[in-house]
């Protein structure tokens, strides 16, 4: 599931970030290959402390490949930004972007071109490239992991899968599936609960680091000094029995609004929390809802093979891949 879904999320991001049709699910893409290679190289480097020094890393073949892939990715983003600026008509950037916004055709590059700070200063091309690249890298593998694991959990719980399917069918009963709209997504409460419970059980990002901006006094009186960098285990928080009873059980009803009234907002942190939380969490949740809804309308997902062992890398994967069986549903009424 990971390979297929990762290509789909990359395809979607290229459309939403750059308004570019990569069609990478049907044919090879040099840019997509570079993104995938960079992700693999970062994972490998992260696991070998001797490669953390740039001066050493750039002398070995992996370092050469890393720099070459970086250049390719940066050149692609730069060319999109420069082409967008070059082809602006005489009415000016602001007028063009506002006109595009009215017909909902703004992409991420447009939003960044339109952005200004409190002094009215625009982002530089380098700033825009950094933001776009962050969205591409942070947004494809994490969302792919979230989708793969929620499909796995629904495959293991057919009663929840069928309830999600019926919820989507009821919502779109008089329309074509491709007509799903933004406002529809708020009307899929059970499907949303299933996604959240999967993100609790299988968080795509298992650990984050934060620097303390002040002394932190722990319940036992010990103090974490200001300036110390702490590792925060998202996986550990989500699997702590003191936070979540029976933490290994997949139970979407944990996220029924009636059951979350007394839950701490920091008990569920798949996108981190606070001012440095995930910039793309709304985008990711939206994409997961749409993909899951349209998938369940057309297919039944079933378990395949042995239960996978969780494998935390940059994202949470499965040893040997995550294998599922997918059956097309009949075209007639269900």
TrEMBL record:
Gene3D superfamilies with a match to the protein in the record: Cytochrome P450
The keyword Thylakoid appears for this protein: no
Keywords: Endoplasmic reticulum, Heme, Iron, Membrane, Metal-binding, Monooxygenase, Oxidoreductase
Highest taxon above the source species: Eukaryota
Cofactor(s) listed: heme
GO molecular function: heme binding; iron ion binding; monooxygenase activity; oxidoreductase activity, acting on paired donors, with incorporation or reduction of molecular oxygen
Record has RNA-binding as a keyword: no
GO biological process: small molecule metabolic process
One Pfam family in the UniProt entry: p450
Residues that bind heme: 278
Cell compartments where the protein resides: Endoplasmic reticulum membrane
GO cellular component, one term: endoplasmic reticulum membrane
Protein family (similarity comment): Belongs to the cytochrome P450 family.
Protein name as annotated: Uncharacterized protein
């Amino acid at each position: 599931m990971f390979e297929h879904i990762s290509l789909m999320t990359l395809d979607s991001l290229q459309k939403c970030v750059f308004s570019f049709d990569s069609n990478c699910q049907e044919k090879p893409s040099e840019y997509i290959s570079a993104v995938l290679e960079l992700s693999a190289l970062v994972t490998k480097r992260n696991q070998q402390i001797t490669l953390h020094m740039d001066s050493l890393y750039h002398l070995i073949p992996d370092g050469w490949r890393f720099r070459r892939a970086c250049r390719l990715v940066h050149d692609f983003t730069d060319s999109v930004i420069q082409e967008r600026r070059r082809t602006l008509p005489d009415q000016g950037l602001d007028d063009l972007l506002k006109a595009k916004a009215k017909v909902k055709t703004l992409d991420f590059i447009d939003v960044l071109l339109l952005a200004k700070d409190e002094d009215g200063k625009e982002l530089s091309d380098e700033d825009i490239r950094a933001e776009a690249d962050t969205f591409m890298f942070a947004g494809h593998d994490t969302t792919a992991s979230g989708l793969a694991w929620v499909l796995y959990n629904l495959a293991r719980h057919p009663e929840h899968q069928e309830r999600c399917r019926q919820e989507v069918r009821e919502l779109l009963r008089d329309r074509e599936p491709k007509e799903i709209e933004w406002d529809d997504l708020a009307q899929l409460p059970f499907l949303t609960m299933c996604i959240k419970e999967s993100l609790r059980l299988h968080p795509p990002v298992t650990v984050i680091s934060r620097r303390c901006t002040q002394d932190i006094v722990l319940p036992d009186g010990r103090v974490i000094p200001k300036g110390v960098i702490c590792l925060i285990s998202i996986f550990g928080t989500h699997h702590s029995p003191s936070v979540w009873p029976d933490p290994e059980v997949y139970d979407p009803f944990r996220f029924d609004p009636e059951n979350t009234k007394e839950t701490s907002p920091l008990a569920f942190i798949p996108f981190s929390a606070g001012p440095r939380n995930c910039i793309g969490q709304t985008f990711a949740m939206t994409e997961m809802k749409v993909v899951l809804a349209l998938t369940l309308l057309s297919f039944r997902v079933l378990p395949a093979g042995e239960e996978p062992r969780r494998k935390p890398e940059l994202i949470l994967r499965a040893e040997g891949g995550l294998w599922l069986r997918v059956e097309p549903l009949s075209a007639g009424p269900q």
